[in-house]
Every structure is written in C-alpha cells, then in structure tokens.
Amino acid sequence: MNDTAPRVINDSLSQHDFTRLGAIIQEHCGIRMPPTKRTMVEGRLRRRVRALKLASMHDYCRYVLDEGALDNELVNLIDAVTTNKTDFFREIEHFRFLDERGLDALSRLPHRPGRDRPLKCWSAACSTGAEPYTLAMLLHEHARAQSPFRFDIIATDICTEVLATAKLGIYPADMAGMIPKAIASRYVRRSRDRDDPTIRLIPQIRQSVRFGHLNLMDAQYPVATDMDVIFFRNILIYFDKPTQKAVLHRLCRHLRPGGFLFVGHSETIANMDLPLTQVASAIFVRS
To answer: 277: burial class by Cβ within 10 Å (0-12, 13-18, 19+)?
Structure first.
C-alpha cells in the first residue's frame, strides 16, 4: 500500500467479490449475506477502503482474500457489516414481563436468585449497550423496592466497535425518549453543553454491566452455565436454520432450569427440539 491515498477509480463491489466476502462473513460469525445486502456492504466498506488507502473495492477484496491480510482485517470487516440497531427499553413488553412476572417467578425457585445469590443475566448480542443497561436500570429499580436484591449482568458482542461505545455509556440524547421519566431522572444525565446533545448513564448503571467480546459461532462460550435470564433478541433473523438451532442449543446449556430466554418478537424457535416452553410472546422458560 502507498503512503498517500490514491485516486479512487472504482468504488463498486462486484457480485463475485461480494459472494467471496459473504462466504467469509457467514463462516466466521454466522451472518447470512443475501444479494439484497450487497449495497449495504458496499457502503459500509468504503471507510475501510479509504483507511487502507486502496483504490477500489476490488483492491480491498484482493488485499483481504488473496494477499493474506484476512487475519488482520477480519475484525474490521465484521465490525463494518454487523447491524447494530438498538434502543433503551426496545420491545418494552419483555421488560414489563420481567418486572411484573419474571423476577417473582425466579425468586420462588429453590436457589432464590437475587437473595441467596446474584440474579445472573446475559445480554448475548448487546450491540452498543442499550439492552444490558436497560436491564441494569430495571434491576436497580427492583432492588430499591425489594432489598436485599443482588444481580450480575454480562453483555457480549462480536463487534469490537460497539463494545467500545457500550463501555462509555454515552448516547445521542434522542435515545432517552423511551426511558420512563422516573427512571431517567435517577439514572440518566444530559450533557450541560448545549452543543453536545448527548446523555450519559450514571456510574452506578455503567458499573453494573461487564462487557466482553464473544463470537456466537464458537463451539463453547466462556460464560457461566447457571444464567437466570438470557436476552438474545433480533439476532436469529441473520442466521440460517442450522446456525439458529446450533446457537440456541448452546445458549440453553448456559440457562438454569426455570430461567428465561428472550428472543425478538419477529423471530421463531419452532421445531428446533429445545428444552424450552413458551410463556409469553417471544419469551421461553428452560425446562
């Protein structure tokens, strides 16, 4: 590569190169790349083309796939193509279920999570952190009313960029819109700089979540096998059926009997022979 950026002579991604990249992405992180995603991938990879000072998408693909740079570039490639939409209290019915029914059901199990030991929660595809931080706010609220109550939240994702954002706990101010006002007043602070429209979560919330990198395609997960709650929402839609089944079976190995698995409202786990029973829309209990 040259030290100065060359003139970009071709900024389009050929079908051949898209197919090759798609195969790599699906192999490493399970995400399907159908033809409809070609334009999206092309747009997101332009930054990598510029960062590497290459002349074209084709040169990028040649550099990554033919010239031995895949190992060094794989993290950047996955970061570029991973979809990371998230909001606080997204699909709020799940959090209402947990608050109104789920925590009570868990408290009546023999191991009494929250009292005898911390309630263990896992956000298994946490994106920029809104989901696990929502859990943290909800559980802090529960602890205010049900002391003593202890909990532990881990949050993982394959994308290193979103994990870095999540650890900061700083978000665009418009993301605060779905947070109930009473909860926001306790746990969210707006920037005092009028030219900086951001919100920051207070240290108590940020310190309640432990973030880590995890690839759901791995055969084993470095996560405890006695989770009480696993959030795995709006991820299955990116996997083919065999990958969906394999990942869900692995997740079930980490969920304690009586624990809850939450998936996205548009997702289904029917006909996968899982040790789960549906108890509400997109909510399942481990048998």
So the answer is: exposed
Among residues 11, 20, 44, 250, the one annotated as catalytic is: 44
- pLDDT averaged over 10-residue windows placed end to end, the chain, 287 residues: 48 84 85 84 86 87 87 82 81 96 93 86 95 97 89 94 93 90 94 85 97 94 96 90 94 97 92 95 96
What per-residue confidence (pLDDT) applies to 84?
A: 66
Residues in the chain: 287
Asked if 199 and 175 count as a contact pair (C-beta separation under 8 A), the reply is yes
Report the alpha-carbon distance of residue 25 to residue 23 in Å, rounded: 6
What are the tokens at 195? 């030219």
Q: What is the pLDDT of residue 279?
A: 96
Strands ordered across the beta sheet of 151-157 = 209-213, 151-157, 119-123, 227-231, 255-262, 283-286, 276-280
Partnered with residue 151 across adjacent β-strands are 119
Q: Is 157 a catalytic residue?
A: yes
Which is the catalytic residue, given 17, 59, 152, 157?
Answer: 157
